Amino acid sequence: MTKETLKYAFLQTLPVLFGYLFMGIAFGILLERAGYNFIWAFFISSIVYAGSMQFVLIGLLGGGMGLFSMILLTLSVQSRHIFYGLSFIEKFKVMGKAGWYMIFSLTDETYSLLCGMKIPKELNEKKVFFTVAALDQSYWIAGCTLGAILGGFIGFDTTGIDFAMTALFVVIFIEQWYGFQSHIPAMVGIACGLAALIIFGANAFILPALIASVCLLLVFKNSIKQGESQEVCQ
């Protein structure tokens, strides 16, 4: 890893740093109040590293849920990651052993960054990808562990800080809108998201929206490729 790679990756992950740090602190505080110290917070964020599922896990630790039921619950909560991985299969394959870590570390925010980055030609894409993923997880581990250490000593209200993640997605969407000739993928995503939200509600719309988006993008694949070809020619 070169200094240039680390600097570029760090600048790209700054929004994730602030979001993960405060969200991780919130998780650590909840975990500590449930009776688990910072050692648990460190290893859970290092091994599980599942964002929303970690918050669900706090209630499961003392709930007596069976292993099979826990596996099914985790799969349902994190199933959207199946679709994230589809778009990076080929790129992760050529990364060798590091590809396994990339699969493990592909969170919502890391996926968004990898999709939105325009890596300078002088930098190695594989090294940038790995560095971004590693930095994002280090932020999450630091936040979770710090939150568990501080426990109930934090006196300020952190309500709304998680909006940093939403803001990150909005910025990436706008950059991709202006950066690509074809707007079909963006329009498909918006339409499927809104339709699924209306039909399934806020708590269950993500997976149906992703399935519908993938199906429609396959239908419009040729149109998207034509738009990209026009962009290259221009």
Describe the protein in words.
This protein has 234 residues and is mainly alpha-helical. The chain has helices at residues 3-12, 14-33, 38-47, 52-61, 67-78, 80-86, 89-93, 98-104, 108-116, 125-150, 163-179, 184-200, 206-219, 221-233. Helix 9 packs antiparallel against helix 10 (125-150). The radius of gyration is 19 Å and the shape is globular. This is Branched-chain amino acid ABC transporter permease. It is a multi-pass membrane protein. InterPro entries: Brnchd-chn_aa_trnsp_permease (IPR011606).
State the helix count: 14
- Proportion of strand residues: under 5%
Rg on CA atoms, Å: 19 Å
User: How does the major sheet shape up?
Assistant: none
| Low-pLDDT segments, ≥5 res | none
What is the average per-residue confidence, as pLDDT, rounded to a whole number?
81
Percent of residues in helices: over 70%
Let me know the number of strands. 0
The class by helix and strand makeup works out as mainly alpha
Can you tell me the number of structural domains?
2
> Could you say which overall geometry the principal axes of the C-alpha atoms support?
globular
Order of helices and strands: HHHHHHHHHHHHHH
N- to C-terminal distance:
35 Å
